[in-house]
Design goal:
This protein is of the alpha+beta class. Helices cover 33% and strands 24% of the residues. The chain is globular.
């Protein structure tokens, strides 16, 4: 799944939090009609991880604008997390 986050706020705390949980992302800067500048953060998230990410966003960032799009194909071997699932779980529990 492609998740697109759009925020007029400083994206660094959001990026640090999600990166710490193992999510990879790409950030670009843009402008919006209601805000001079916005950050657009693109993430590729496996379907099984989407619910976890949506929980995080709804609890910790309830005002952030996001879209989710279906992806049919992805480059084989593409690295979409910077840590494997076991490391993310251990990191989540502070181990």
């Amino acid at each position: 799944m492609i998740v697109r986050l759009i925020t007029p706020d400083d994206p660094r705390p959001l990026i640090a939090n999600l990166s710490g949980l193992g999510y990879g992302m790409t950030r670009i800067e843009g402008s919006g009609s209601f805000s001079n500048t916005v950050s657009i953060i693109f993430m590729i998230v496996p379907r099984p991880e989407l619910g976890r990410l949506m929980d995080i966003l709804s609890k910790e960032y309830p005002t952030i604008l996001y879209t989710v799009e279906d992806v049919r194909n992805i480059k084989e071997g593409a690295k979409i997390f910077h840590r494997d699932a076991k490391s993310r779980i251990l990191g989540f529990f502070g181990l």
